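Hypothesis: this fold can be encoded by more than one sequence.
Test: take the structure tokens below, design a sequence, compare later.
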């Protein structure tokens, strides 16, 4: 009976791990852009990157033989296009499924307008509200937004419009792993079928 408890404990641990939410977040303001990856309550910042001092590299003359003439561009593009055309339905299906599972935990948009002329400021305020309203409706219709806020602010000191945007997207780890495996195997099968078809076409050309 002990092995039943062990199996149940392992399954419960995998289930709890699958409920962990992973995702990414971004923030854009006039000073710059920041990006981070989120795993549960932990955030790993990716951008902005710290600038590293680069030491100049001395180019050495290579005595290696000249490389063979590359494959013509038309053949390379044609071969890649066959793979892209075959993978496009799988990619679109994956994007649709991921969009359904993604949860927008935070979405904030703020547009700042201003100017010396009150009439121009009022006109810009109305235009910004119209554009922001249309964008906000589209985003709320496409995603499950839990905490969202959109506003237009007037700042008479600012001569040029400014945008502030912040978003945090997450989905369950179990859902991400399942979709990755499902669509990964599906894409692999598609690539193998295209490769086999291309080999058969080459064999037919050689036989002709």
């Amino acid at each position: 009976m002990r092995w039943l408890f062990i199996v149940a404990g392992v399954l419960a641990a995998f289930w709890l791990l699958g409920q962990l939410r992973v995702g990414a977040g971004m923030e854009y303001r006039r000073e710059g852009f920041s990006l981070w990856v989120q795993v549960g309550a932990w955030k790993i910042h990716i951008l902005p990157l710290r600038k590293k001092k680069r030491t100049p590299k001395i180019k050495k003359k290579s005595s290696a033989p000249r490389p063979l003439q590359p494959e013509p561009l038309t053949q390379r593009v044609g071969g890649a296009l066959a793979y892209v055309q075959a993978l496009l339905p799988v990619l679109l299906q994956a994007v649709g499924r991921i969009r359904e599972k993604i949860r927008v935990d935070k979405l904030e948009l703020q547009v700042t307008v201003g100017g010396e002329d009150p009439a121009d400021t009022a006109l810009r305020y109305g235009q910004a509200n119209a554009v922001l309203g249309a964008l906000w409706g589209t985003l709320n219709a496409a995603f499950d937004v839990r905490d969202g806020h959109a506003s237009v602010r007037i700042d008479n000191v600012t001569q040029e419009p400014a945008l502030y945007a912040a978003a945090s997207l997450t989905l369950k780890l179990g859902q991400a792993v399942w979709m990755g495996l499902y669509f990964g195997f599906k894409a692999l099968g598609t690539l193998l079928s295209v490769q086999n078809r291309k080999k058969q076409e080459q064999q037919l050309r050689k036989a002709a």
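The first strand starts at residue 21 and ends at 29. The CA atoms of residues 202 and 208 lie 10 Å apart.
Hypothesis status: open.
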